[in-house]
Design a protein that fits this description.
Elements (H helix, E strand, L loop, with lengths): L2 H28 L5 H8 L31
């Protein structure tokens, strides 16, 4: 069997399966039940060292002391 034919057959079968499983694994890992806190902390990185003090809730907290989720109305 010539090299191109073997590589083409491998890419069409096993590599396709491997890449599909990798993609599904990444999706499951990103949406796993314990990752919400990590994602919220990562989303607030730009606001960590904000010294202006004029942005209420820039650190991920509500001005009244509670926490809010991204997309919640204040």
């Amino acid at each position: 069997m010539e090299t191109y034919s073997w590589m083409r057959e491998f890419a069409d079968s096993w590599m396709l399966l491997a890449m599909t499983l990798f993609f599904l694994g990444v999706i499951v890992w990103a949406f796993r039940p314990g990752s919400r806190k990590t994602h919220l902390e990562t989303a607030n990185i730009p606001f960590r060292n904000d010294t202006t003090g004029s942005l209420d809730g820039a650190d991920g907290t509500d001005p009244k002391g509670g926490h809010y989720q991204i997309g919640d109305a204040k």
